[in-house]
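Figure caption, in words: inputs first, then the predicted bound structure.
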Amino acid sequence: MRKFADIFKDKDFLWGAGTAAYQCEGAWNEDQKGLGEWDYFNHNSKLNINHTDGDVASDFYHRYREYIDLLAEGHQNTIRFSISWARILPKGTGQVNQKGIDFYNRVIDYAIEKNLEPNISLFHYDLPYELAVDGGWLNRKIVDYFANYAKICFENFGDRVKIWATINEPRYYSYCVNVVGNYPPNRHLDFQSYFQYQYNLMLASAKAIKIYHDLGLDGIIGVVHDNGNVELAPETKNKKNVQLIGDFFYNRQILCPALLGKMPEETDEVLAAFNCLLYREKDDKELLAAGKADYLGLNLYNRQYLTDGTKDVTKVFHNNQGSRSKAKEGIQIHNLFKSAFDPKVKRNQWGREELPRVMYTALCEVQRKYQPKLIMITENGHGGYEQADETGFVNDEQRIKLTAEFLKYLLKAKSEGVKVHGYYHWSAMDLYSWINGYEKRYGLIRVDFAHQLALTPKKSYYWYRDFIDQYFSGS
Ligand code: BG6
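Bound structure (6-O-phosphono-beta-D-glucopyranose present):
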């Protein structure tokens, strides 16, 4: 029987790549899978600016063996993927779909056979439709619904899966759903829902973690957070306040409950500044305290660079259109804080900073403030338009260059004592992007969506394979 302790015995690091169910599986209505919120949204909403969907996606559902073979041949020793809640429980609660269980058993068993340690997220944005119409994460009952779903997963897969995450990016998910409004159900600048959503997500996460621990399974369970650190622009006058509110807004409302088992002490003060109120129940404190994460997953793409708020109206800036738009990523919140723009930092085609040294800054800050026992970089990578040659090969030098820099900073942090022991490149293969459909590519493996989903490893795939080899050979 495999043991968790054996994972890090021979090798001190997990090197792999990530995926998420809706983004890669396809088979949206096969084998009794229930309807997901994203299925419904993409099929029906005029706000689906991608004009496409995840119906087929990268067809991981049928071709998982091919993908796993390629990842193993790339010398990766782990794979991150998520479970589709609606595949296990088609209506979110109630009847379990055995065919969904069978599918994930096949994937898990095959990954293990190929020496890829499975790292599974229970929730990566794809809420079952029936729960979405019932208020989604704003309905407090979802805490129990999620706990029930998590328990079913632990009972069915927990004998073999040793690394779990409850929720992928509760903060960014809530931000897109409630503030930007580019994820269903597209609420815009609704801060009350932004905060409540995250609070309910963290309660659900804590409840699932407690259940996992109570079951006495051999393994670890964590939370995956986006970000890590806030940096203030030098012109900032009210440094203390911008840091306090900004760090709560981007990090602490997730990292404190996840790693310290409690909401930050500044919660009420910050909520009041937004004229918002968090609805809590009397046992919540106990629940959060009992559901601390064993490790932290960090999805690291960029920092939050902030400065003083102004009298300007609250507004969010988001680029869903790549180089067709000049918009940069950011927000201005009336009188509280706003994103600062550093002209010296290069931005990608989606208006996001490309600043690899934040890998180091974020890792060090998280280690210092929260002292997690283990950190894994659960996402990091580069999204962009890509052109393949006539053989399907992509010479993605830009991805290699950026990833090499990010990894240099990761290893620097590790050498200085940060307990980081895993890295998952985002993404394993080209897949559906929530706001860019199939235009923006992240994968190490090219998927030709126009021609029978032909698979071709990119230059970065080979570069990553050699990087892993060098790491383990100590050169
Ligand atoms: C992360 C998500 O936020 O970023 C992934 O966990 C996502 O699911 C990735 O694909 C890249 O996001 P985007 O918006 O650039 O496609």
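DSSP finds 16 helices and 15 strands in the chain.
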